[in-house]
Amino acid sequence: MRICILGATGLVGRETITLIARAWPGATLALFASRDQELTLDGKSYEVLGASRLEAQDAPRGDLAFVALDDDHSKRYVPRLVELGYRVIDKSNTYRADPKVPLVVAGVNSSIVDDSVRLVANPNCTTIPLMLALSPLRREFGLSEVTVSTYQAVSGAGIAALDAFLADARDGFQALDRLGLPFKASGYAGNTVPHNGGTDESGFSSEERKLIFESRKILSTPELDISAQCCRVGVAVGHYENAWVTFDRPVDLERVASILSDPARSPFVKHLPGAAGEGLSALHCVQDRDLALVGRIRPDHRDRDRKSVCLTVVGDNLRLGAAANAVRAATRWFPSADRDLQAP
Ligand code: 2RA
């Protein structure tokens, strides 16, 4: 089985290499990036080729491809990979809204991936943990309204942003005084920044619009009443999301906990009990990198009908929010040797 990864040297590409070794231990790996180079990962050295080699007449055919590139490069290479016989999981925004391309959260709607599908879009790293938490509850109680506030890790902005943040966090904090001075608007260290790229005439950013339209597409609920505000916080890895959720029917919190604690009903979810959810924090995801952590489930005190709850969802944006979901979706085509990675 020949598997290729485009964007192999990026943060998500590296995690994908690690997971492929678990999912398909005997697979032949072909790694691509912007140029020929060598990649050392976990003490192992890999040859990485320039992705433009895929455009050569004699480029080899293959079975499965993971594309972790920006939208423009994904548009350039995904059609070529399909032409070379690969089944493709694309992690960019390029195909997510395409009605002909399944947008898949493994454990939520991965059953739509069958042998007739050649291309799957991987959702945004904020959408995946939220859908894993809400989908099983929707099946039980119906879902009428969702409001989300996200606190997203810097690694979501890529390896350069992460390295700059880590340097700032080391140096910047030494310089800061108790009032956070000297003020440094450009960095993430010690700051909370609106995720406001691609803001359109609605006033909402592309990140916020993604969470809204992707949730509706994945749950097949085009009318879902959902709104989102997204920001970036000084955290390396781990997206943190506070949600206010109103269901169609009254909810019993014990029933909610039992559903979220049942792997058969809530695959790839870990429920942290108690209103404080054992102090659920972003860094909890480091202990469970491939799971959506759900906790701090409380009745919304404004609700008289017991249909609304507040809850928190945490997910490792590089693993659950990208690499693990993509590998799991691919197990629908190529069953995994590792049960924790096999999509239902
Ligand atoms: C972010 N979800 O966190 C976006 C892309 N990874 O910036």
UniProtKB/TrEMBL annotation:
Family (UniProt): Belongs to the aspartate-semialdehyde dehydrogenase family.
InterPro entries xref list: NAD(P)-bd_dom_sf (IPR036291), Semialdehyde_DH_NAD-bd (IPR000534), Semialdhyde_DH_dimer_dom (IPR012280)
Pfam families linked: Semialdhyde_dh, Semialdhyde_dhC
EC class (word): oxidoreductase
One MF term in the entry's GO annotations: aspartate-semialdehyde dehydrogenase activity
Protein name: Aspartate-semialdehyde dehydrogenase
The organism of origin for this protein: Sorangium atrum
Keywords annotated in UniProt: Oxidoreductase
EC number: 1.2.1.11
Domain Semialdehyde dehydrogenase NAD-binding residues, every copy: 2-116
Highest taxon, organism lineage: Bacteria
